[in-house]
Design goal:
alpha/beta, nitric-oxide synthase activity, nitric-oxide synthase (NADPH), Flavoprot_Pyr_Nucl_cyt_Rdtase, globular, metal ion binding, six-stranded antiparallel sheet
Length: about 1100
């Protein structure tokens, strides 16, 4: 039911008009208002939307003719179309709220009102409400009335106020009812509008006072509720309900209630409302009404309408009861209006019923609302402690710490069960509530019938219409409807009446209750809080003055004065790891320390504006080139200038800094390169580092490095909260932590088999091809594989003997729960026997003494630690010293020795092959550069023969992924050495697709995406180009040009060969639309970037954005 109360209201300007429509042109998808026009299909103007501008209007083109015919039918059947906000350059169809949607509260020009009145009355005739004679008579009557009542005033034209003439007219009850129904039918955000003809009208335009409005709303809302069998509905939009739960801002900055209503609660309290005591998160705000030239009135619905429905679940009765979730029985929209025939109705409560997903999937579940999903997940079985019993999850503290697939599992289950519980609870309570599937099917049938009868689809906003459950709901598959907005329509207010009243500093509100016989009883409020400063004062009264910040958040008393209570978190990230950890850190600072805290990417960090004693918490990922990612690039560009500014006397010693680096040791040359750049800068400018606050992590060991992050956080928390003194040592990684992380990493590895090794010359500094059988696993072209260079069985067995271990299958006596590899497994896969000991303190416990000698060349003593002492070689030497006996005679000493060994790290390689899409082949080629004495290529690979087992782990994301789906843009590809591998993979992928297309008699899918390939290789490795690229890729048109730059005495480099026959301008033209892929050493990648930037006269990385891809090997 719609309850209409229409005082001639005036908030600030007179409330008469609404948008910026024009009346002189036909409506198109760019939102030009149409006055009454003939039934003939109009010609579309040349300024139509981008979609139409690209369509031929030829009737012979059936694809183009269909949307043109549909638009013509829309124009033919809708005489008044409001602006959609679109222009030929910009479409707003995908926006949740269009920036120039019509609003209630703007006087409009007389001619616009006449046009809309005429269009509405024409629709009354078209829909059979009026006969033709009635229509003509009423039209003449209304137009004469508008002319007679016209007055000079301020009107809105094209979004701006201007002097003009305006007027209004009074609609009869029949016109008003039909206008309301059409407005609901035209509401593009409502899924329930198939019931529009059932809408009932309660015409209360005669009510002129605020108190009278409250009394009328209370009386007629009770009728609409109808003991739970709610009589026909209105659109439901959750942020504009007249029934809202409170949102109390607590002194510690938290919110009790529905966070979306903080501002509304503050506004209503400013009118004088006093919350019930004790406060709860389920308190319902009072009704508020304000008539013209009258103070606001406040009141409450009867108790039976305020009674909440407890959300219960038949399968989880006790658990859901303990959650204490509730919701009110029906939605009632209030801060909306109706725009009907040029007349605006500004006070129009709209009563309806709920669809289950509005409550279960949005209101109770959204993180910005009641955020109940985690608690619901716990109610249906999520047990974080059971996760922590598993070694790979022992560090998790919350659901957000789990891998994304585990999070999605529980959030999806919780969402579904909560939605089910809502529907079940409303059914048990006997209150109307639509199911998602039923509502979706109902709308689909309604829309299909509309197309059948009228020849065009209903206007619809998929963002709002499609229920949040996604593709399992039929409406999700219907796609976007034409973007148009007919009138009559439901509109938002231009001016919020409550805010306007409070800003005006007028008299406080009046409380209205309904006495016996319907008598209105009023009572004035006492003191009211009218401004944010008053709300802050309340906070100050609830907490000690020394404990309150200006935002009302408490600050720990123990906080040292050397640390500013404002903390700044900044991140830069190539993926999601640093961002996720930054958000987690932000939550922990706010919830656990209750310190004001801001978060943003590194580009938003403004050092000159930082207050003294600020604390910066930086989470830094590294690009493949070892550089700072794009969301920190602007900051990076300032480092030299800032270093010069703050290194000379005026340093930044008053700034506290902590850094958490996110790197991958599989890319050893660039490991945590960005974090090291950032750390070096802050050292140079004299910043103070938080104790234990610089950490460099390795995602090859732990994809989401929670162990290190939690340890880093505990150090930060102790420092920031003042719980540690200056000489307290920070919490460090325990000796076993790294091996526990290694154990978790090993769970991601699987066996593969070495099939072959090939090179024209298996010599040092040459490139070899190895082929692996993945034993059924699959991989993607251009992706990466990690290979663990396990220790050779002969060395493992020898080490077991040297450590005095008779049975290698016995478990290593680790104290860490769940960490129990056998001695053989540990020595094979956990530690690097070719690496150097991390430290040598175990020697004295073993009865050994190593005399430190001076270096023969420079007289400097040997460095402390284990540097220079390879594990296997040293154990061999110590065994010799003991006459062949075991070095260790106890488990404790053996464990000490093993804990001092370096971790065995995987190596990462780009695949150099691609399997046909229809093939079940699981072999993969890798290009390996042979390094003299190299840990992988020499020590490991040389000892493996065909049929040997290798441990591999695919890396899910890789830089070149966008190139696989690129079909219509050219590619400039530059690679050197083994960096040719991903390009070899890409070309094989394209060759397979092109061969298949040729067999089918079709054009290659990559015919419009040719590759210009520039390759730098040593002379002995040029066989790669011959064998792999050969003539076929050239012959099939996949490679437009191939430049091979062999090693040469003239030091000609690949970056010197970027400009082809077309010259610089030709290259610039290609780069404006094309893509670039550069892969090789760090120096080569940087050199190509600098050369291309010089050619393009701008930073090529910034100019091309995601179209410029770099990889460093």
């Amino acid at each position: 039911m719609a309850i209409l109360i229409n005082p001639p209201a005036d908030y600030s300007p007179p409330i008469k008009g609404v948008t910026n429509e024009k009346t002189s042109e036909l409506p198109t998808s760019n939102g030009i208002l149409n006055s009454v026009h003939s039934g003939a299909a109009p010609n579309l103007p040349s300024t139509a939307c981008p979609f139409l501008s690209g369509i031929s209007h030829s009737p012979e083109d059936p694809i183009a003719a269909k949307p043109i015919e549909e638009f013509a039918n829309i124009l033919q059947n809708n005489k008044v179309l409001a602006s959609t906000g679109c222009t030929p350059q910009f479409c707003q169809a995908g926006r949740a709220t269009h920036i120039d949607e019509p609003r209630n509260g703007e006087n409009r020009p007389l001619e616009t009102i006449k046009a809309e009145a005429s269009g509405f009355l024409w629709e009354m005739w078209k829909d059979g409400v009026y006969t033709e004679d009635q229509y003509n008579h009423r039209l003449e009557e209304v137009l004469q009335k508008l002319d007679a009542d016209a007055v000079q005033g301020t009107v809105w034209i094209n979004g701006k106020k201007t002097p003009g003439i305006t007027a209004t007219w009074t609609q009869n009850s029949e016109e008003l009812l039909h206008g309301l129904r059409l407005a609901w039918k035209n509401s593009r955000k409502c899924i329930m509008r198939s019931h529009y003809l059932e809408l009932r009208l309660c015409d209360l335009r005669h009510v002129k006072t605020s108190a009278g409005m409250i009394a009328a709303v209370i009386e007629h809302t009770e009728k609409a509720y109808n003991d739970g069998k709610i009589q026909p509905t209105g659109a439901t939009e959750p942020h504009y309900e007249k029934r809202n739960f409170v949102a109390y801002l607590q002194p510690d900055g938290t919110i009790l209630g529905d966070p979306s209503n903080v501002e509304l609660t503050t506004d209503i309290m400013a009118l004088g409302w006093k919350p019930p005591q004790p406060k709860t998160q389920w308190d319902i705000l009072p009704l508020v009404a304000m008539a013209e030239n009258d103070a606001p009135a406040l009141g409450e619905l009867p108790e039976k309408l305020r009674e909440l429905i407890d959300i219960r679940h038949p399968q989880y009765e006790t658990a859901f009861e303990s959650l204490g979730l509730k919701w009110y029985r029906f939605p009632a929209l209030s801060r909306l209006g109706f725009d009907i025939g040029g007349v605006q109705y500004t006070a129009a409560p709209f009563v309806g019923w709920y669809m289950d997903a509005e409550i279960g999937v949005r209101n109770l579940a959204d993180g910005s609302r009641y955020d109940a999903l985690f608690r619901v997940a716990q109610a249906i079985g999520l047990d974080m402690e059971s996760y922590r019993q598993r070694e790979e999850y022992k560090e998790v503290e919350s659901l957000e710490d789990l891998p994304d697939h585990e999070q999605l599992l529980w959030m999806s289950r919780a969402q579904n069960e909560l939605n089910y519980a809502v529907r079940y609870s409303f059914i048990v309570a006997g209150v109307s509530c639509s199911g998602t599937l039923a509502a979706s099917n109902d709308y689909c049938r309604f829309d299909e019938e509309h197309v059948r009868v009228h020849g065009y689809r209903l206007n619809a906003d998929p963002y709002w219409l499609a229920p949040p459950q996604g593709s399992i709901v039929p409406i999700w598959h219907r796609g976007g409807a034409p973007n148009y907005q007919p009138k009559p329509m439901i509109t938002r207010h231009r001016f919020d009446p409550v805010k306007t009243w409070v800003r005006g500093g007028r008299k406080r509100g009046t409380w209205v209750s309904i006495g016996e016989g319907g008598a209105i009883v009023s009572a004035a409020f006492g003191k009211s809080y009218r401004a944010c400063s008053d709300v802050f004062q309340v906070c100050k009264e609830l907490a000690a003055p020394s404990m309150v910040s200006r935002t009302g958040m408490t600050v720990p008393k123990a906080l040292s004065m050397s640390v500013n209570p404002n903390i700044y978190i900044h991140y830069c990230s190539t993926g999601t790891t640093a961002v996720t950890l930054a958000e987690k850190l932000h939550q922990r600072v706010q919830k656990q320390l209750k310190i004001p805290c801001t978060i943003g990417n590194l580009n938003t960090l403004q050092i000159p504006s930082l207050p003294r004693n600020s604390t910066l918490l930086l989470l830094v990922s590294t690009t493949g080139t070892g550089d700072i990612p794009a969301n920190g690039k602007s900051f990076s560009a300032q480092l030299d200038t800032l270093r010069e500014k703050y290194s000379k006397g005026n340093n930044l010693s008053h700034i506290n800094v902590a850094i958490f680096g996110v790197g991958d040791v599989g890319y050893a040359a660039t490991f945590n390169g960005a974090a090291k750049i950032i750390e070096s800068f802050w050292k140079d400018v004299g910043a103070k580092f938080v104790k234990g606050g610089v950490v460099m992590t390795d995602v090859s060991v732990e994809a989401m490095p929670l162990s290190a992050f939690n340890r880093w956080w505990r150090n930060l928390k102790a420092t920031l909260s003042g719980d540690v003194s200056a000489d307290t040592a920070p919490e460090m990684e325990s000796p076993e932590d790294a091996f526990a992380a290694q154990s978790r990493m090993l769970q991601t590895f699987r066996k593969s088999m070495l099939l072959s090794k090939y090179s024209s010359h298996m010599e040092n500094d040459r490139i070899a091809t190895i082929t692996l059988d993945l034993l059924g696993a699959t991989y993607r072209p251009m992706s990466h594989l990690r290979i663990l260079p396990t220790n050779h069985p002969s060395k493992v067995n020898r080490t077991l003997h040297m450590l005095g271990i008779a049975d290698g299958q016995q478990p290593v006596p680790f104290a860490t729960k769940g960490l129990q590899p056998s001695w053989s497994e540990f020595l094979r896969e956990f530690v690097d026997l070719e690496g150097e000991f991390k430290e040598l303190t175990w020697l004295e416990r073993g009865g050994f003494h190593i005399k430190r000698r001076a270096d023969a060349t420079n007289g400097q003593p040997e460095r402390e630690g284990g540097g220079g002492y390879p594990v296997f070689d040293m154990l061999e030497r110590l065994t010799e010293l003991k006459g062949g006996e075991a070095v260790a005679t106890s488990d404790a000493l053996r464990l000490d020795i093993c804990l001092a060994m370096p971790l065995l790290r995987p190596r990462s390689f780009s695949v150099a092959s691609a399997a046909p899409s229809s093939s079940s082949i699981s072999t993969v080629d890798l290009l390996i550069k042979i390094h003299p004495h190299g840990r992988f290529s020499s020590t490991f690979l040389s000892k493996h023969t065909p049929a040997s087992a290798l441990l591999i782990s695919p890396i899910p994301s890789f830089p070149g992924q966008p190139l696989l789906s690129l079909h219509n843009k050219p590619i400039l590809a530059v690679a050197t050495g083994s960096g040719v591998a991903p390009l070899q993979s890409l070309l094989q992928y394209r060759l397979h697709a092109t061969r298949a297309a040729n067999i089918a008699g079709e054009r290659s899918p990559f015919a419009d995406s040719q590759i210009t390939l520039i390759v730098g290789l040593k002379k002995g490795d040029c066989w790669i180009v011959r064998d792999v690229i050969g003539g076929e890729a050239m012959a099939l048109g996949l490679v437009e040009a191939l430049v091979v730059v062999p090693s040469n005495g003239g030091k000609l480099r690949v970056q010197d060969c970027l400009i082809g026959a077309g010259g610089e301008e030709s290259l610039r033209e290609r780069m404006r639309e094309g893509w670039a892929y550069v892969c090789g050493s760090k120096a080569m990648v940087r050199g190509v970037c600098e050369r291309l930037s010089a050619i393009m006269n701008e930073d090529v990385v910034e100019a091309m954005g995601k179209r410029y891809i770099q990889e460093v090997f």
